[in-house]
Design a protein that fits this description.
Blueprint (H helix, E strand, L loop, with lengths): L1 H32 L22 H6 L4 H13 L4 H6 L1 H13 L8 H21 L6 H25 L9
Helix pairs in contact: 3-5, 5-6, 6-7
Length: 171
């Protein structure tokens, strides 16, 4: 009788452990279905603290450069994007940066401004390429997405520097 009770207790314990083990593995399977970084797609992007405005002279110089206005508009729109929105609009953002580089007005052409335009175009091309992958790397896309407004505002810094009034240097 004592051995029957022990046998029943051992059987119940084994069934309990088997049940718990099966339940834990099913929870793990549910978590594995969602790829790593998938939750990043739904997080809002936040670039509001980065904005560097143009000086009045630089603003006047880009007034007729419609494609600068288009790129600025794209950067402003990115403030309200989630990563999935950015993925959907990556071609538009790339096209804006590419056209911006190709239409640089003569009065704004200098090496630093052209360099900033190349960097901006390269980052938008990288984002476009990352968004077209079958297995997107959302962490890498988020990293590149964070750099695009920064690169645009670095362009603003270079445009502002074109119009700085510096006193002459006396020897």
């Amino acid at each position: 009788m004592k051995s029957n009770i022990n046998l029943n207790l051992v059987t119940l314990a084994l069934l309990f452990f088997a049940f718990v083990a099966c339940k834990d593995s099913s929870i793990g399977e549910e978590k594995e279905e969602k790829p790593i970084g998938e939750e990043l797609k739904l997080e809002p992007l936040d670039f509001k603290g980065l904005k560097i405005p143009l000086s009045p002279a630089a603003k006047e110089a880009v007034e007729d450069w419609e494609l600068y206005q288009a790129m600025e508009s794209e950067i402003e729109r990115m403030n309200d994007f989630r990563l999935e929105d950015l993925i959907a609009n990556s071609s538009t953002i790339y096209n804006a940066a590419d056209t911006l580089q190709k239409t640089l007005p003569q009065k704004l052409r200098n090496r630093p401004v052209r360099a900033r335009l190349k960097v901006l175009r390269s980052k938008t091309a990288q984002l476009k390429q990352l968004s077209e992958r079958r297995q997107p790397d959302f962490k890498e896309m988020k990293k590149v997405a964070d750099e695009i407004p920064l690169d645009f505002y670095n362009l603003n810094i270079q445009l502002n520097e074109l119009f700085l009034d510096l006193p002459p240097i006396n020897d």
